[in-house]
Design brief:
Blueprint (H helix, E strand, L loop, with lengths): L1 H16 L4 H27 L2 H5 L1 H30 L1 H4 L2
Length: about 90
């Protein structure tokens, strides 16, 4: 993990220290897009070849749905409570 963080920091430092032309920045953005797409492609191959994952896909999908819904609920409910408790003056207008 630290290796990836160091690579990211090194890239940020180089990008900050050396000013690249618009043409080089455009090329690097395209290269970065291709690299991300290749990573996603190979991750898909890896996941698709995992029989254990595929056999449990329905349960994983259900758990993911529950996790997403609970995250949404526990994000919205505190905001509603906060608004009702502390934003009374703004709603009176």
């Amino acid at each position: 993990m630290i290796k990836y963080l160091l690579f990211c920091l090194a890239g940020g430092y180089i990008g900050h220290k050396f000013k690249f032309s618009e043409a080089k920045v455009s090329f690097l953005q395209k290269l970065q897009t291709v690299a991300v797409l290749l990573i996603l492609f190979f991750m898909g191959i890896n996941l698709g070849s995992n029989e254990k994952l595929l056999s449990n896909l329905d349960m994983l999908g259900f758990r993911s749905l529950i996790f997403a819904i609970s995250g949404i609920i526990f994000s919205i409910v505190p905001v509603i409570i906060f608004e009702k408790l502390f934003m009374k003056d703004k709603n009176d207008d």
